[in-house]
From TrEMBL:
GO terms for biological process: coenzyme A biosynthetic process. PANTHER family: CORNICHON-RELATED. Gene3D superfamilies: CoaB-like. Belongs to the PPC synthetase family. GO terms for molecular function: catalytic activity. It comes from Emericellopsis atlantica. Residues 40-91 form the DNA/pantothenate metabolism flavoprotein C-terminal domain. InterPro entries: CoaB-like_sf, DNA/pantothenate-metab_flavo_C. This is DNA/pantothenate metabolism flavoprotein. It comes from the Eukaryota. Transmembrane segments: none annotated. Pfam families: DFP (PF04127).
Amino acid sequence: MSAPVDEDAYFSTQPPPASLPAQIAASTDFVNRHAAAGRRVVLITSGGTTVPLEKQTVRFIDNFSAGTRGATSAEYFLEAGYAVIFLHREFSLVPYARHFSHSTTGSFLDFLEEDGHGNVRSKDARMGDVLQRYTRARTEGTLLTISFVTITDYLHSLRAISRLMAPLGPRGLLYLAAAVSDFFVPESRMAEHKIQSTDVAMPADEEEFDNFDNAPRIARSKRLVIDLDPVPKFLKNLVDGWAPEGMITSYKLETDPSLLVHKARHSLGRYQHHLVIGNLLATRKWEVCFVSPGREDQWLRVGKKDGSTWTEEQVRALQAGRVPKEEPSGEIESLIIPAVRDLHDEHIKTSEARSHQ
Ligand code: PAZ
């Protein structure tokens, strides 16, 4: 079993986001209010973290995640009676608005029409229902959205908010769906200014040696070699110290089907948390695998849009990571969230029984 990572070494050298005090104030109020009402609270992480290459950041490394899993899950958790802290990558998908934002073929304005007198109404039948659900979450104060950009912002916010969830005891749930960078450039090695691609601004006698021509009349491009450190694995700290009573669910993403379940089990063994949801990049909207201690692995698979059942051959193809021709009949989060909720019920029962012994 792995020992928790030394937090101080990381958090004292990587500066927190400027908004952290405001995030803490808003989350404290949110958690205390819902804890007093006996409501469950889920902290959802969503979207990808960036790895800046410069302090005054012009360039950064990013990943594919649009935040679909996190934003969709948030809606189902709200429907299931949870209050939701939605810690997401700035400008990634957010609950409710996700249905109309981020279109690759147009704009959210395409969902609206105007009658010639400045009055606007929706052209899309779903908008009324989505707006109602959004308004309910706003009115009841059950959705708090907080954003991050970099891997360091993310880790500072995750640590601060999960520590604040203590008053919830086992009624707190962490649902870690963000695609978190595994590598980063430590602050101490990060360039202050935009990394230059040529030496054009340098005095002639300071120009670097160029292995094609050591006296170029026109400055030529340089290669950029990036040296990244591994991001410390803080999940054990989360389990043991930051949110020890809450239920902790993490996602595991792979692209190689032969690794998925093995890596999910490994993660569970290493961090001793409660649930790992495995998914393959190509098929993540069709199926996921629940891996939890003392239970058989459970595959959840969404139906097909045409209503027919999956054949054995189609299931094998899915599990081999091949994108099916069939559209999913709905959102797989509609299966995932009730199943997580069932495990959370058990977690609460077990914790309460233990505390009465
Ligand atoms: O954001 P998205 O819906 O495009 O992707 C979701 C996901 C694949 C990032 C998520 O389901 C997941 O697996 N998160 C954990 C990634 C990881 O293993 O670090």
